[in-house]
Design goal:
With 183 residues, this protein is α+β, with helices and mostly antiparallel strands. The protein has six helices and six strands; from the N terminus they run ααααααββββββ. The strands form two sheets. A four-stranded antiparallel beta sheet has the order 1-2-3-4.
């Protein structure tokens, strides 16, 4: 009862046109969840189980990154200077450390908002090339989705002038841990 009387007291102190002022306030910075968005959110939450594989969660397309996983792998090749330096080293240990440096540095190239990339379809191919590399060389990239369940992307990078070749397979794996996720 005490709370009700305090609310009534506060209401009596508001000006007569308070509801009009509140309704006309600029609310561009406020995100409202309508019924459709709320049902989408509840659909995502209902798929989450402790330890569940996040790659199996179905997400609406507006939540996804605009790149395919095959294109996203190219982030690793955005800093070729480290690979070129590693290629020029005679000492195997130093070359290994430079390749490790390149690999770890490549993980820091990410969009401002971390989003899940689009899942490529089985057999999908993405290719590109870079011309303006240091040492006036050209590098070529080819990636293919080689498995859908589990998702598996294979890639091949080649700089023929410098005799640099990088190839591999990425099998994304992430789990929901309750208050966090692991990838």
């Amino acid at each position: 009862m005490e709370l009700t009387s305090k609310v009534d007291e506060l209401k009596s102190k508001l000006p007569n046109n308070a509801s009009e002022i509140i309704a006309s306030a600029d609310t561009d910075d406020i995100d409202e969840i309508d019924n459709d968005s709320q049902s989408i959110l509840m659909g995502i939450i209902s798929q989450l189980r402790l330890g569940s594989d996040l790659t199996k969660i179905t997400l609406p397309t507006f939540i996804l990154e605009k790149k395919s996983m095959l294109e996203r792998i190219t982030n690793f090749f955005q800093i070729p200077e480290i690979l070129i330096l590693a290629n020029s080293m005679d000492n195997g240990r130093k070359r290994f450390l430079e390749v490790l440096k390149w690999y770890l540095a490549s993980w820091h190239i990410a969009p401002k908002a971390m989003k899940k990339p689009l899942n490529p379809i089985l057999g999908e191919i993405f290719n590109c090339y870079w011309e303006d590399l240091p040492c006036e060389s050209t590098a070529f990239y080819l990636a293919e989705q080689t498995s859908h369940h589990p998702p598996k992307s294979s890639y091949f990078y080649l700089n023929p002038e410098l005799k640099i070749r990088v190839d591999g397979t990425i099998i994304p794996n992430s789990k929901f841990l309750g208050n966090s996720s692991a990838a």
